[in-house]
Amino acid sequence: MPLVVIVLLDDLGHPADATARYLAAWCVLVLLPGTLLWRTLTGGRSWAQDLGFGSVLGLAWALGVWAVFTGLGYPRQQWMATVGLVIALLPLLRRRSPEPITWLPVMVLGLVLAAVRVFVELLRLTPLPPAPFGRHQDLWFQLGLVHALERHVVPPDLSAAGEPLIYHWFTNALMAAHGQVSGVGAPEVLLHQWPMTMALTFVLAGWAAGELLSGTRWAGPVAGLVSGVFAGGLRLTDEPGVDMAGALSIQGPTGTLAAVVMLGLVGPTVLILRRQAGKGTWIALVMLLALACGTKPTLLPIMAVGCAVAGVACWLVDRRFPLRVVVLGLLCAGLFLAGASTLTGSTGGSRIQFLAALRVLPYYGVVTGDRSFPTYGGVVVPGIADGGLWPFAAVLVAWYCVLSLPRLLAVVGVMLHPTRRDPAYWWAAACVVTGAAITLVFSHTGYSEYHFLRTVIHLGPVVVVAFVARVLGEEVRHRKVWMPLAISLAGGIGTAVVLKQVWPAVVVSNQKEAALDLLGPAGVLVVAAGVSMLVIRRVVAPRHWPRALVVYATCFIAASSLPAQSTYLAVASYGAVVDRPFGTGQGTRIYLTRAEQEAMLWLHEHAGPDDVAVSNVFCMPTRYRPGCPNDAYWVSGLSGVQQYLGGWAYAPENLAATHHTRSYLSLPPPWPDRLQESLDAVRRPTAELLSQLHNEKGVDWIVADLRAGPVSPALERLAVPAYANSDVRIYRLR
């Protein structure tokens, strides 16, 4: 498996030794200590569960180790903590005789497929700097955080000197830890190495969650494959398009880790709900909840709602007060409140607004004519409320549910015996539904309400696999059980293939056409599923128990999501094999030239850890003008140097200043004096201004981008020229 990763990343420009060092760091910092901790704290049930839940628990361990060693000034020695842990736990492990891993070939297959998938669908399409390319602006923001966390335990806001950072930065801290120990640069870690290990973690954690939830060994491999390779949405036609990447994202690593942590939380939560937990399990739970606190603000609210539903289920089933569930819920709420003021971040300007998520769904703009900014309007999104287009809103919500069916089918598990009496399934189903539902009632200035859905994208299909395995149980070995199951899976796949080939593409201009185009294929799928169940009931297994038919119908619909995902993977793989060229984004607002990136990489190598730079780069595209999109973070992202003022799009003051009427990208900066001083330092520098910036503001460098606007030739005598290329001039202040 490591050889596959090394070969794939070598094709992207990563030296084999660098990838080997990074994988070794991941194993030493995360996988090994996490596996040992999980087995020691919970007793261990199988090596597959130990590896899966340990791969997530190890992230919480690694975060604490990073904080201690970075705070002490010895970040490269973090591996010593793992050595100490192994020595401490070795006597305990000797007294255990765990069973060998079963289904090992399937695990290896899942890991290989996950690695290939993330390579062909994501990594290959995002080259390393300084390749001229249009990379998402969030990527530079995340990269700057990684640089900052290589030096600081509490990171500053690199875009505004002296301002505190309010953001969920635990993911970036883990990247910094991996880079510090392995010696791999931050851009390589963020863009390629970290997503690769997260893809592998989805397989391991999905396997563990499926096996524990179901209590069935064969469910683990299937859940691992679904979580790591086939976690996309239900797409039955070519148009409209559907995101097939699941929660994996290069520019949104916090969302990726949130989905991983959600799978990891299955371990201790299920053991606690089933009364199988000791003190060690609670310790593991607290570690994971602490990790969740600074990973994504979506995690703990989803967990809290899931605990509330599970608590009611426990009360009704056990006929006694579920104290353990109440404690679990209070832990979630307490940690969320504790971190809200410092670790939430990027939520300013958000509000409750029903159906705001519909703004980005197909045909919303065509039918409603609404082009308003996010969060604008009343309690209901204006395109629906102002025009009274409630039938169209119902169509879009229905399509949203159809798209999410591979996850929402988790709800079926609480309706069948024996899973309906298991509080673990109520908790898992409630988490999935909560993630999907909050997305429809919350509005974020940057459409980040969809992160609630992404948090449960991988959990949902794992729960579906688990309840199918639990309901069928050992009966699946019998011909009258596995044959209808195979027919259902084949029927779902076949129906999806036929629909994709025959469903016509149409131009939508009104509600009726939108309803037909969006819901028509789903209607055909439901009819086909019903017909298949009738055939199974009357011909294949006439005496089969009724709940099995519900399971078969669930499998029919879930399987219908596989053809589109398989096709997408195959096409992307073919493109990688033939080295098909892809667009560089030249001409888009986020495009950066090679010269711009090379200049910032030079600055990264030559600037001191506490240096501050002033620049004329605030917007993308680069040229500054009032009202331009103020989300340029690439100067601090690539250089790692603190900016006197950079992009201010994600500053809490800026997000709050939208007042639900304007885009956060077009607002003036919260610090107008800094903007003027920065522009003057590049366009109209004087000895007095530069002296003030250097002596009073602590500025050490001037970064002047020729594409951002005019650069005064006076800088050649007022400052010390340090670097120059076709696009950028860098000066050192005396």
Structure characteristics:
single chain, 734 residues, mainly alpha, two-stranded antiparallel sheet, globular
Architecture overview:
The structure is a single chain. The chain is mainly alpha-helical and 734 residues long. The protein is 60% helix and 4% strand. A five-stranded mixed sheet has the order 6-5-7-9-8, with helices on both faces. A two-stranded antiparallel ribbon has the order 1-4. The protein has a two-stranded antiparallel ribbon with strand order 2-3. The chain crosses the membrane at residues 20-39, 51-72, 78-94, 101-120, 194-213, 218-236, 256-273, 285-315, 321-340, 352-369, 389-412, 424-445, 451-469, 481-499, 519-536, 548-571. Keywords: Membrane, Transmembrane, Transmembrane helix. This is 4-amino-4-deoxy-L-arabinose transferase-like glycosyltransferase.
